[in-house]
Amino acid sequence: MFRLQGNKVLAVDMTGDAVKAKNGSMVAYDGRMAFKKLTGGGEGLRGMVTRRLTGEQMTVMEVKGHGTCWFADRASEINLVSLRGDRLFVESSNLLAADAGLRTGTTFTGLRGASQGNGLFTTTVEGHGQAAITSDGPAVVLRVAPEYPLIVDPGAYIAHQGNVRQSFQSGVTFRTFLGEGGGEAFQIRFEGDGLVYVQPSERNTIAGDL
């Protein structure tokens, strides 16, 4: 069971089951817990965190036992996402924890990943269960409807779920409208029916002033 204590600490209650979380994110626990460090590479959660473009890897750990374990990541805001057989697409750096029963992997992002400097692949989490994602500031959840496509700055994008298609627009950014843009840049266009998670703080990007 995932639950929030405040908005920056995740509490996971376990009765013999397991959870996988970002390595080093455990801040406290009670009861009897066993910790196993997993490294990048291979399939599943270990494979999904390998940045294919930069070669950067993020390690994760599996926590199993009876009791409660608390997780946090650099005082980032934490958001709970419930999956009911659908798929969540999330930047690997923003995935804090996931139920062990959720299937995880990678999917090709192409231009979006390159524009953010995150590589060409992003994380997928699929199945029935809960995941916890982080954001720099309180995340905003935006609805995408068939008649209302959504345009998002790549630097603010965190995750999306539902029956959503994404494409890329080049040559203009939100800052361009303010006369602050410079160079080639990109936006993400979402169409369909689903949710998009954005943060109120832009990460650094490498494809123009995004």
Automatic annotation (TrEMBL):
Signal peptide as annotated in the record: none
Coiled coil location: none
PANTHER family: ALTERED INHERITANCE OF MITOCHONDRIA PROTEIN 24, MITOCHONDRIAL
Protein name: AIM24 family protein
